[in-house]
Amino acid sequence: MRNILPELRAQRGWTQGDLAAKLSVSRQTVNAVETGRYEPSLSLAFAIAALFAQPIESIFQAQRQPSRFTGDPGAAPAEP
Amino acid sequence: MPESDFDPQPTRPLPPGPPQSPGYQMLGRVNKFYSLRVVGILCSLWTYLCALGVAMVAPRYLAPDTRNFVVVVLPLLTGVLVVGIIFMAYVASDEYVRRRILRCAALTGVIVAFSTLGYFCLEMLGYARLSMIVVNLYGWAVFTALLMWILYRAR
């Protein structure tokens, strides 16, 4: 999952520690989310979205995986 | 999306604090690391180790009626104390640190299991039989080292 947290943080001139303090999490958590090592829980994602006043999907974008069955990169599921 | 209480406008950067010497900054980090939870975990673990030591020595000196309490109940109570304090540290951590603590517990289990299996193979070759108290102490040492590392990184 990709995210634009570093850009949003840089726009506001916040350090990772500042953002961590505003979200009430550790700086390590912010670093892990920014580098993609950790996907935040729904509640943390909502808190991040509320803090930056943006919808979640504009901050976090899912990287589409190649379909296991067809091999197409990012194949959409078949309509019923 | 519901109305947010947060200011959507980019705020000004935080004003720089007073200049601090590197030694003062290092002291702040050390003080933060040795927070109450780290001190609590280390102290409770020390109590547990002392209780184990007393339990090992007690049968030589105590009467049979008080021996059971010292050998069984005392290490059990201090063990519960250690687990309780570690659980409180777990609850006080955020979600990422919680996940790392759980991973650390799983990793400890794997390390202890493979070490015990390895020593079992050595026993088959003629080495002395391993006491479970050694496995216990070894497991706690590995778990505490991993936990301290996680709490140090999350400072």
Structure description:
The complex is a heterodimer of chains A (80) and B (155). In chain A, 49% of the residues lie in helices and 5% in strands. Chain A is mainly α and 80 residues long. Chain A has one domain (2-58): 434 Repressor (Amino-terminal Domain). Chain A is elongated. Chain B is mainly α and 155 residues long. Chain B has two domains: 33-92; 94-155. The mean pLDDT of chain B is 80. Chains A and B meet through helix 3 and helix 4 of A and helix 4 of B.
Principal-axis shape of chain A: elongated
Mean pLDDT of chain A: 83
Structural class call of chain B reads mainly alpha
Instruction: Report low-confidence residues of chain A grouped into runs of 5 or more.
Output: none
Identify low-pLDDT runs of chain B: none
Calculate the mean pLDDT score of chain B and round it: 80
What number of structural domains do the residues of chain A give?
A: 1
CATH topology value of chain A: 434 Repressor (Amino-terminal Domain)
Q: SSE order of chain B in H/E notation?
A: HHHHH
CATH architecture tag of chain A: Orthogonal Bundle
Number of domains of chain B: 2
Q: How does the overall form of chain B come out from the CA principal axes?
A: flat
The number of helices of chain A is 5
Widest sheet, order of strands of chain A: 1-2
Beta-strand residue percentage of chain B: under 5%
Q: End-to-end distance of chain A, in Å?
A: 27 Å
Name the chain pair with the biggest interface and residue counts per chain. Answer: A-B, 22 and 18 residues
Oligomeric state of the chains in view: heterodimer
Helix content of chain A: 40-55%
Total number of helical segments of chain B?
Answer: 5
User: Main beta sheet of chain B, described?
Assistant: none
